[in-house]
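Incident log, support desk, overnight shift.

02:14 A customer reports that sequence design results differ from what the structure should imply. Their input is reproduced verbatim below. On-call engineer (initials T.W.) acknowledged and began investigating.
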């Protein structure tokens, strides 16, 4: 009986040490720097992570260091500050439509700021202008704009994000890559 009790006490202490270690591992410089983010932060050890970095091109894929679903501008600022402080690469993902995975930074270990939730659309009919959040997809934009009697000519694929599309950078890079491969 006595030795059983001793064993229990030893096991208890072992548990405590193990738990303390786990807590230490979780509080990496990255997680603690991003702790004030209001949106979701998804790390590679999360079960849903692999499904969040897939698109139609299964031949090319990269593993980001973290996916940050920015809830507002402050989250984007915090992410950029953390990337600067920790000397990490950072990229924005709007629709994630780059087959060469520029939405994931085009390489491993990039901090990805997903803009899906930056999706306000404000239309000023008088001024004929619209303020469109960078996470909006073309389908939704066409729908909202047409209800107000407007249209932008941007292509037929409804799931393309306006962020990358408006910048045009992804297309230019893709073209450049295919030309330099020829
Ligand atoms: C994993 O990510 C999902 C979002 O895709 C989130 O709801 C969940 O809380 C995360 N789990 C952990 C353990 O962080
Ligand atoms: C295009 O590709 C070439 C060769 O790979 C590179 O030198 C050049 O900087 C690229 N241009 C742009 C605009 O990315």
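02:41 Re-run completed on a clean worker. Output:
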């Amino acid at each position: 009986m006595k030795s059983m009790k001793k064993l229990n006490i030893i096991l208890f202490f072992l548990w405590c040490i193990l738990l303390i270690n786990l807590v230490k591992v979780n509080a990496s410089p990255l997680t603690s720097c991003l702790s004030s983010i209001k949106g979701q932060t998804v790390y590679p050890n999360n079960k849903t992570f692999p499904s969040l970095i897939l698109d139609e091109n299964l031949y090319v894929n990269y593993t980001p260091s973290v996916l940050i679903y920015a809830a507002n501008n402050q989250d984007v600022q915090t992410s950029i500050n953390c990337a600067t402080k920790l000397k990490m690469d950072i990229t924005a993902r709007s629709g994630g439509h780059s087959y060469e995975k520029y939405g994931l930074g085009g390489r491993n270990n990039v901090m990805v700021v997903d803009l899906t939730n930056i999706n306000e659309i404000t239309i000023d009919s008088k001024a004929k202008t619209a303020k469109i959040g960078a996470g909006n997809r073309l389908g939704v934009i066409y729908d909202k704009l047409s209800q107000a009697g407007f249209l932008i000519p941007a292509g037929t694929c409804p799931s393309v994000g306006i962020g990358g599309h408006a910048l045009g950078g992804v297309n230019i890079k893709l073209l450049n890559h295919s030309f330099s491969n020829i």
